[in-house]
Amino acid sequence: MGRHFDVELADLKNALLKMGTLTEEAIANSIEALKNRDASLARVIIEGDAAIDALELAIDDTCVDLIALYQPVARDLRLIMTGMKINAELERIADLAVDIAERTIELVDKPHLKPLVDIPKLAALAQSMVRMALDSFVKGDPELAKKVLLSDPEANALRDAVQSELIDDYMVKDGSTAPRAVQLLLIARFLERVCDHATNIAENVIYLARAEVVRHRPIDPE
Amino acid sequence: MGRHFDVELADLKNALLKMGTLTEEAIANSIEALKNRDASLARVIIEGDAAIDALELAIDDTCVDLIALYQPVARDLRLIMTGMKINAELERIADLAVDIAERTIELVDKPHLKPLVDIPKLAALAQSMVRMALDSFVKGDPELAKKVLLSDPEANALRDAVQSELIDDYMVKDGSTAPRAVQLLLIARFLERVCDHATNIAENVIYLARAEVVRHRPIDPE
Predict the structure, then answer these.
(1) Do A179 and B163 touch (CB under 8 A)?
(2) Which of A129, A197, B107, B166 could be B181's S-S partner, Cβ–Cβ 3.0 to 4.6 Å?
């Protein structure tokens, strides 16, 4: 592969970084909108998703064009394939920011339920996992990617705790809280799915670095 | 591309069909388990998911190997790329069957809530959309794929109707139903996501057939 291919590969990485930045912003804003009951910020996220979708398609096309034009093999081919997968994961994270924004708009009309139980904690975890996953990709650092994988059980536990609290302490005790509690429950689930996508990105980084499949296998914490 | 490439491409298509069959079975079984409150069938689905994950990885590797070995361009390259994407969508559908099975196991211990509101209707729609999406891929039939896209609003409407009914007619009126009603609400959401993945498969079929991007764009029903 000549120098031109390397330049195009660097461009691809930059485009993915831009995708990552936009996605991180969308998630951060969706959490801000929820905390501050800010429907207009929620609407900004929903409207901004079209640009992220367009960037995803452009990156996808670039990857296919790079393969067709340069016919890379071995590590270069794997790198482009991994880029395509990470691109798709990022687009799904941005979609979840839209889902959170939509639930937030539903909530804003209704009286406050309570300090959002452990949702802010789960949100902070989700944001840190996305950031670590992206960093691990940029730096090609499988050790950092492993840390993302190790955080996933905590995300599941937090989601389950939020869910139990909303059901047992709110809905069961006072059925009239259900319309609001269900929205919060869904938001907790969306945030946990953000963590899942961060985990998928990290698995791809590890796979690329080691040419060893960690997807769908229990992770050894050592 | 010589005859050998064509043979390998046919093998890839067959592997994807097998993946499709296993996925359809998982979804069908998850709905049966729910309807019949059959925890042991639910466990079969959960245990069977490892085989589907393994097949997904094998197909993914085959796709990368085909590209590295034959360096296809234009339509052949797009076909393999589309195969990889459909493979990933199918794996996610199978994961949703596991999610439904897990919720079903939670429900089986508890008294029946009621005839599952419109969940069987949504389940039937999800199954038919997955089947149509797979058929459209196998036949390379973008018109059939378009029908899948046209069913997606109905899936959303059914999910919203189930959700409203569970909140307003159950949880709000009698908070003690919440632990069961939330499980059903989640199952309705999982089924709607199955429809979303069927839609993604259909979009890829249309994209491949027309080299025209329909992803992320509103669909013209004409």
Answers:
(1) no
(2) B166
The encoded tokens of residue A59 equal 């990156």
- Count other Cβ atoms within 10 Å, centred on residue B128: 15
The whole-angstrom separation of Cα A198 and Cα A130 is 5
Put simply, the chain B residues between 55 and 74 with a CB less than 8 A from any chain A CB are 56-57, 64, 67-68, 71, 73-74
Structure tokens of A185?
């429950």
Contact B85, B204 (CB under 8 A): yes
Global pTM reads: 0.92
For chain A, give every domain's residue range.
Answer: 3-210
Pick from B168, B175, B216: CB nearest A173? B175
Question: Tens-digit pLDDT profile for chain A (222 aa)?
Answer: 567 999 999 999 999 999 999 999 999 999 999 999 999 999 999 999 999 999 999 999 999 999 999 999 888 999 999 999 999 999 999 999 999 999 999 999 888 777 678 999 999 999 999 999 999 998 999 999 999 999 999 999 999 999 999 999 999 999 999 999 999 999 999 999 999 999 999 999 998 888 645 555 554 443
Measure the CA–CA gap between B144 and B198, rounded to whole angstroms: 12
Q: Which CATH number fits domain B3-210: 1.20.58.220, 2.60.40.1930, 3.40.710.10, 3.50.50.60?
A: 1.20.58.220
C-alpha span between A35 and A16 (Å, rounded):
29
Helices (H), chain B: 3-35, 39-70, 74-108, 119-139, 142-165, 178-210
**Residue A218 touches chain B, beta carbons under 8 Å:** no
> Inter-chain contact A64–B54, Cβ cutoff 8 Å?
no
Q: What is the chain B residue with the closest CA to A189?
A: B186
**Facing B175 at nearest CB: one of A56, A84, A175:** A175
